[in-house]
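Q: My collaborator sent me two sequences in one message, no labels, and asked for predicted structures for both. Can we handle them in order? The first one she listed is below.
A: Yes, handling them in the order given. First sequence, followed by its structure tokens:
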Amino acid sequence: MYEAGFAEIYDEVHRHRGKDYAAEAAYLAQLVRARHPSADSVLDVASGTGGHLRHLRERFTTAEGLEMSPEMLAIARERLPGLRLHQGDMRAFRLGRRYDAITLMFSSIGYVLDQADLERTLRCLAEHLHLGGVLIIEPWVFPDTFLPGYVAADLVRHDDRSIARISHSVRDGDAVVMTVHYLDADSGGVKHLTDVHRLALFTREQYEDAFAKAGCPAEFVTSAQFSRGLFVGVRTPPA
């Protein structure tokens, strides 16, 4: 997932789509401080090439990232020198410290395997939060909002480079299989890349149950910045 070649294309496509990392980071900080006014540290999980971290570091004294893809991390490290960026799997990592807030954006939670894996992941995230810390997750689509056979298309032009992206998504049991084709063209020629993603489908109730089991009871909030909504949980003391 996001090996060499894909990471750079990923950024170009989101730039074309007009993704506003600054506004999203500001909104995330607002959600955190509404629940934890003194929050001063944040870990961005599945931090990618650092789009959100670039702005979260302006709002928290300590801002760190966790990313599984070496290619994504390489780009982030070049763009954000001096920032602590860890390589690790969101389902099982140990950083040896806790944070006031953890964010997990881009519907990356969909890459867990099943309900048990979802619960395992949220427990791992919660273990890295101080009591009163805030966990914010952008979900993948819910089963009742997924459109079978959905097709998305983008055409990106930047300087002398053109990128066409077309994806097709089908349902496979409790998951979506998304096949993505890229044509990446510049003066040197045209490359065709294919990427396949499998993303688990969970209901709102399944997400909320996993948050509760992790000790972070959550609410679901909607906003203009995040069309799929956000789950916002707060870590509570053990019963």
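Q: And the one she listed second?
A: Here it is, processed independently of the first:
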Amino acid sequence: MNRPSQLTFGLLLTGLAGYIDAIGFIQLTGLYTSFMSGNTTQMGVSISHGAVDGIVRPAVLIATFLLGSTIASGLSIVTPAPWKTTIVLTYEAILVFGAFALGLQLPDLGLVSFFLALAMGAQNAVLGSVQGFRAGTTFVTGALFSLGQKIAAAFTKTGPPLGWVGDAAVWLALLIGAIGGAAVYGTIGIFALILPAGLTACLATMAALFARAHRVGA
């Protein structure tokens, strides 16, 4: 997959992460499906206050995210190079479709969020660095720090004048995704998951086509 394609995939996946995290945040009333720093802080506060009820959910979400990341990373390790993205995205798509199917059957949407946390953990194994910044991850703290560094480099003329644009685009993609996720979920409820499930499946298909073309051209 060439760099423009990686960049496009990365921004779409980052937007998807914001979309899903917004839905999970609403379902879990203040917890996250991808922002594990927030969940860890919430768990720490609950531990300090002795609030057992406030410990279990963030702990399970963290463990679930870790499990999703571990399985996806394992798949990426054992899969031949051209097909890594396809396999991990397919795994993620199955998890999001599973969350949607579960949401249709169960009134407790908190259970759906655990499937989404698995999917978000998996997504971080899809792409690495693209053109000097992380693309496709489910969090943007690193992107914001890198954005600040590159803006400083641009002002001091020690780096490219537009070197910060990529990191800014990553942050903006997550923000736009979160706005969309909250708005769509507020309108159609659990059916809002059809969009990220379908998008992930489409990206997996496109990655497969790229991999096939690469194999044919090799």
